[in-house]
Amino acid sequence: MIRLNQLLSRLSLGLAAALSGVCAPAWSQDYPNKPIRILIGFAAGGPTDVIARIVAQDLTVAFGQSVIVENCAGANSLIATDAVAPAAPDGDTLIAATLAHNINPILMADKAKYHPIRDFSTISLAATVPMIAATGFDSPRRGIQDVVNTAKAQPGAVTYGSAGHGGSAHLAATLLGNLSGTQMTHVPFKGNAPATTEVIAGRVSFMFYPMVGVADQVAQKRLKALAVTTPKRHPDFPAVPTMAELGYAGFEDYTPGIVFLAPANTPPAITNKLADAIRASVAKPETRERLRGLGAVAVGLSPAETVSWMQMDYDRGARLIKVADVKSED
Questions:
Q1: Taking burial as the number of CB atoms within 10 A of a residue's CB, which of 30, 109, 147, 228 is the most buried?
Q2: Cis-peptide into 32, omega within 30 deg
Q3: Helical pair 268-283 and 303-324, crossing angle rounded to 10 deg
Q4: pTM of the complete model beyond 0.90
């Protein structure tokens, strides 16, 4: 004979399974029923902003709802992160995050009081963005070795720009300094776009810039390409050597990604629907070509795959920060 508590337990499990089968599709079918906001932690015109807007255009068409990109620049994207974290977990407020999302809790533990993976619902790694070291077109430096030689001769005199403390450009230059045994001065900005303006003007010596939009700047003779961080020479810059060719291996392991995240506890039916739409977006031949033309590589991972990628990204960033002794302030 089945005891009453066993019967109730079985009924409860059956009811939970039934409700799960009914409610999950309802979430998916009803969502989205109002505009979606994607926050960007950097200034307009930078790589994250450009890629997020491309994806947002495709999501607007796919969902039949406006998908709006908003720039909340400052504090190495922490302003945007702090706005998304406490938002309702309904899929209406998202963030397109970069390496800074993983690094901020390491470098700014007093300000970034979140865990980059546990405290957010993962959606998809949409794309990765290889970097290119560049200087102003009129700069006397013709290659990375010129930068290194100047830094050796005049410690601290060489400056490099970035989109913020702990971002991909900052850590790439830190890696160069560590490998070359040189000391260079970090000059952070509120995005890659304003940093590039200063490099073009010659007020900042050089920077590692995500490839999005750089080809146009080089073609217009505003920037001069020094090296790329790809494993092989990039087809858009066939005459530009890789960092590994120049004797600085390992840069290909620090290729930054653009990851879409939602507030913690966002229902899987919503994050999966968003992930499917983002993956469909970056899988479209026209979108892939558009991203390739900008220097980005379309990826489109599932939520589970994105969690694994984020953990790997976090671990390697943490290792570099420890080895290079990067502090919370330069």
A1: 228
A2: yes
A3: 80
A4: no
* Residue 185: count of CB within 10 angstroms of its CB: 15
pLDDT tens figures, 303-324 = 999 999 999 999 988 988 888 7
Cα→Cα distances 242→190, 229, 250, Å: 27, 6, 11
Residue 96 φ/ψ, nearest 5 degrees: -95, 105
The predicted pLDDT at position 202 comes to 96
**How many whole angstroms separate alpha carbon 200 and alpha carbon 208?**
13
Could you tell me which of 110, 108, 91, 90 has the C-alpha nearest to residue 100? Answer: 108
pLDDT tops 80 at residue 183: yes
**Across the beta sheet with 36-40, what order do the strands follow?**
67-71, 36-40, 93-97, 257-263, 120-128, 297-298
Looking up tokens 């989205």 gives: 32
Q: Taken in order 27, 31, 36, 38, is the CA torsion positive or negative?
A: positive
Beta bridge partners of 271: none
pLDDT tens across 14-44, in order?
333 333 334 444 445 689 999 999 999 988 9
Tokens of 305: 């795959």
Strands 185-188, 223-228: pairing is unpaired
Return the amino acid letter for 254.
Answer: Y
In the chain, the percentage of residues whose pLDDT exceeds 90 is 69
Please tell me whether residue 218 adopts helix, strand or coil conformation.
helix
Q: Are strands 131-136 and 206-210 parallel, antiparallel or unpaired?
A: antiparallel
Given a contact cutoff of 8 angstroms between Cβ atoms, the answer to whether 214 and 225 are in contact is yes
pLDDT in tens, 188-212: 998 888 999 999 999 999 999 988 8
CB 241 within 8 A of CB 233: yes
Q: Pull the structure tokens for residue 101.
A: 């999302």
| DSSP assigned state of 228 | E
7 Cβ neighbours under 8 A, 6+ residues apart: none
